[in-house]
Design a protein that fits this description.
Blueprint: H1 12-51, H2 56-101
Length: 116
């Protein structure tokens, strides 16, 4: 029976909605418990590997290499963002300077763009 039926018995839809909400809460708890258990197992396996004298240094080297790569990429992105903002600020400064000086595009005193 659809909740929007005109023939629905009053109170029946609310009970169904409460039962569905209760079932959803149980599913969430079950999912959370399974996820937590899986996370504990995975963490214990990785800790066992990391503390193993034969495998630990290799894992540490891989983690250090990935961390270094991510750090270099983050610095490159940051410099790119900074450079873009500096370029934009210089362009705005130049356009305001040209407007304040009253130069027009036909003014011979205006420095020419070498790429035109």
């Amino acid at each position: 029976m659809d909740r929007y039926d005109d023939d629905a018995v009053p109170g029946e839809g609310e009970a169904r909605l409460e039962a569905t909400a209760s079932m959803n809460r149980r599913r969430r708890r079950s999912y959370r418990a399974r996820s937590t258990a899986l996370g504990i197992v995975v963490a214990s396996v990785w800790m066992g590997l990391a503390l193993d004298p034969g495998v630990g240094p290799a894992i540490g080297g891989v983690v250090a290499a990935v961390a270094l790569t991510v750090g270099i990429l983050a610095v490159a992105v940051g410099l790119g963002w900074f450079g873009g903002r500096v370029f934009d600020a210089c362009g705005r400064f130049w356009s305001r300077l040209v407007a304040a000086a009253g130069w027009s595009d036909d003014d011979p005193a205006l420095p020419r763009d070498p790429f035109q």
